[in-house]
Amino acid sequence: MERPDLAAAIDAAAEALVGVLDSAVSRHRLTVSPTQLRVLSLLSSRPETNVNRLAELLDVVPSSASRLCDRLEAIGLLRRVADPRDRREVRLEPTPAARALLGQVRARRHEAVRAVLDRMPVRGQQELLRALLAFGQAARAVPTSDTSPRSA
């Protein structure tokens, strides 16, 4: 019997998961685009972020990141604040409205994932949990490209 391609199975499962997460959000009319939602999510987990760092995280030029921030600021989901350690530096902060929006999105996604999990047998859920924990641990052990030695 041929051994299944684990990497392909994980890739297919990841696509299915992304589909579940996307459909959970797309059924509700949001005031922001998927890119703007990603920006808010990135900023909420990285409180020291400025426009240049955001541009790096998004792999875009700083002017594009700045325009994204302008639009989020205009609809009340983002604030630019001076960094208390260096007043020349401007940090990007999600507003309380942005945090509430992210909480709603997260809750909808969790509901959608729970609905799929409920269709799985309990044993399969337990095996999935163990596998995901082991995968997460192995992924954290892999050096990132920033810390790996560069070849000449």
From TrEMBL:
PANTHER family: TRANSCRIPTIONAL REGULATOR, MARR FAMILY, TRANSCRIPTIONAL REGULATORY PROTEIN-RELATED. GO terms for molecular function: DNA binding; DNA-binding transcription factor activity. Residues 3-138 form the HTH marR-type domain. InterPro entries: HTH_MarR-typ, MarR/SlyA-like, Tscrpt_reg_MarR-type_CS, WH-like_DNA-bd_sf, WH_DNA-bd_sf. GO terms for biological process: response to stress. It comes from Micromonospora endophytica. This is Transcriptional regulator. Gene3D superfamilies: Winged helix-like DNA-binding domain superfamily/Winged helix DNA-binding domain. Keywords: DNA-binding, Transcription, Transcription regulation. Pfam families: MarR.
